[in-house]
Amino acid sequence: MDDPPWAFDVISKHLTAHPVPDIVFDFGKGFSPSNIVLEGIGALRRLTIKRMDTVRFGVSVPHMMELRRKFKTVIESSPELGTLIIVTSPLYSPADQGLDLHHFLPDTASGTTTTGNLTIKSLSLHSRQITLKDQMFSHLRLLENLSITSYGSISSMLSQVWDNLRKKGIKLKKITTNVIDVDIVLLEYLEYCEDTLIELTLEDGASLWYNHHSSNSNATYFYNHVLQKLAPMLKVLHIRAPDADDWCFGSDNYLAFGSCTNLEELSVSIVDFTQPHSLHTQLLLEKTKAKLSKNVRVNIFNVCLLPQIG
Question: Highest taxon of the source (predicted)?
């Protein structure tokens, strides 16, 4: 973002005169908030904001808040916004501030917005700490797809997100998050969505804090209780384990995978599948695939065991 101030003014005026439905702002090369002119931009259906991080670029908090207010105005001017994506860098986003959606969406409680409630259907939030205040859910009542990760931060507030979604009666069709962010609140919310959820992706994301014991207990509950409830509706299931733990495909959970007979895509992790000792697991996977749709696409991720020291 090394362009001179006049360049942003020209772009803003052009977008005002010739609106486009989809805009991506990527601040990966740094930025000066005062140079960014967003006035007049609106009527968006999709907005992506990437790498807007104060620590990485030395931007002061007041300047960051100024830029957030500019984006809030853009969103207020986009009543038909259906997709919102906000991504900060896992190593640079300030943990004490996090990503608060209140900074970007209109505050309907204040009565200042002229657009009323937004109708966001697809939301992607990726930061070290994510906050969704109660009043923000009025903009998410039609939400269908949620991709949300906190990079495994110990200060993650994702449990509140899943709890609020359930309290507001919002059932999702697609969920993407990290395996390391899975907790009992999310597992209970997945059960709540058993009649709507068609895609579930649990990724092996960047981990700033990882509780291995909790991960194993959550995996056991997921395979023994949750997945079998989701099985009739699921079309896509991706589970990528961060370690050689109970999230990996094996003899303890292959029957749960086999119950998902309507799958079109399946991704699983197998421990050292290049080694002779994994032959039994590979045979179980072939047995499981035989129970699934003939057209199912299966991907395998290899999880290597760390060598023993001493």
Answer: Eukaryota
User: Domain locations in the chain?
Assistant: 1-143, 168-310
Burial state string for 45-71 with b = 16 or more CB within 10 A and e = fewer than 16: ebbbbbbbbbebbebeeebbeebbeeb
The C-alpha atoms of residue 107 and residue 113 are separated, in whole angstroms, by: 7
Q: What is the 3-state secondary structure (H, E, C) of 39-84?
A: CCCCCCCEEEEECCCHHHHCCCHHHHHHHHHHHHHHHHCCCCCCEE
Long-range contacts of 116-122 (CB under 8 A, 24+ apart): 116/79, 117/141, 118/75, 118/78, 118/79, 118/81, 119/79, 119/80, 119/81, 119/82, 120/81, 120/82, 120/83, 120/84, 121/82, 121/83, 121/145, 122/82, 122/83, 122/84, 122/146
Q: In whole angstroms, what is the distance from residue 243 CA to residue 225 CA?
A: 22
CA distance 246 to 269: 10
Domain 168-310 has CATH 3.80.10: yes
Mean pLDDT (10-residue bins), the chain, 310 residues: 57 64 80 69 91 63 81 92 88 61 78 67 89 88 93 71 94 94 94 98 72 81 97 97 90 96 96 86 94 92 66
- Residue 55 CA to its chain's centroid (Å): 22
- Lateral strand order in the sheet of 297-303: 22-26, 46-50, 83-87, 122-126, 145-149, 174-178, 199-203, 236-239, 265-271, 297-303
As a whole number of angstroms, the distance between CA 164 and CA 170 comes to 9
Q: Please, are residues 15 and 47 in contact by the beta-carbon 8 Å criterion?
A: no
